[in-house]
Design brief:
The termini are far apart. The C terminus is likely disordered. The protein is mainly α. It has a domain of 94 residues: Orthogonal Bundle (Helix Hairpins).
Length: 145
């Protein structure tokens, strides 16, 4: 399978500089990463809908479209199939082939009541109570009402 994906990736790279009037791949590159991402999302949704509806043939067709659009986005982002396979091997070593890495390494500790904080040694108090706050670039924070 990885040979087929590698061939697809190489074909995408070869087509990205063709005339956008005749090449879908070149047209996607011309339109930019946002359009590429939108096409990828559309194909993913189509795969999901067909799978839920039990239409196996459509799942196969839409999965091919999904892989094509994923490969185009990879090429635009400078990601190679080998980069992805390396990540899969890394995860397999950590968790097994079918497991996904957890979103966070460990659950944060529960809040410690003020009385317990005062009883802690001064060196332990800040790390036991406060977690570092990290601003995520490009994300907006919504107010809770």
């Amino acid at each position: 399978m990885s040979d087929s994906l590698e061939r697809l990736y190489q074909a995408v790279l070869a087509a990205r500089d063709l005339d956008p009037a005749i090449s879908r791949t070149a047209r996607l590159f011309q339109r930019g990463p946002a359009k590429m991402a939108k096409k990828l999302a559309e194909e993913a949704i189509e795969v999901v809908i067909d799978a839920v509806n039990g239409d196996t043939d459509a799942v196969v067709r839409e999965s091919a479209d999904l892989l094509y659009n994923l490969t185009v986005l990879w090429a635009a982002a400078g990601v190679t199939p080998e980069d992805v396979w390396s990540e899969m091997r890394r995860r397999e070593l950590m968790l097994g082939i079918a497991e996904k890495l957890p979103k966070s390494a460990a659950k944060p500790p529960k809040a410690i009541p003020d009385k317990a904080v005062k009883a802690l040694p001064k060196a332990a108090a800040p790390s036991a109570v406060r977690r570092r706050i990290v601003a995520l670039e490009g994300r907006s924070v919504r107010k809770r009402h």
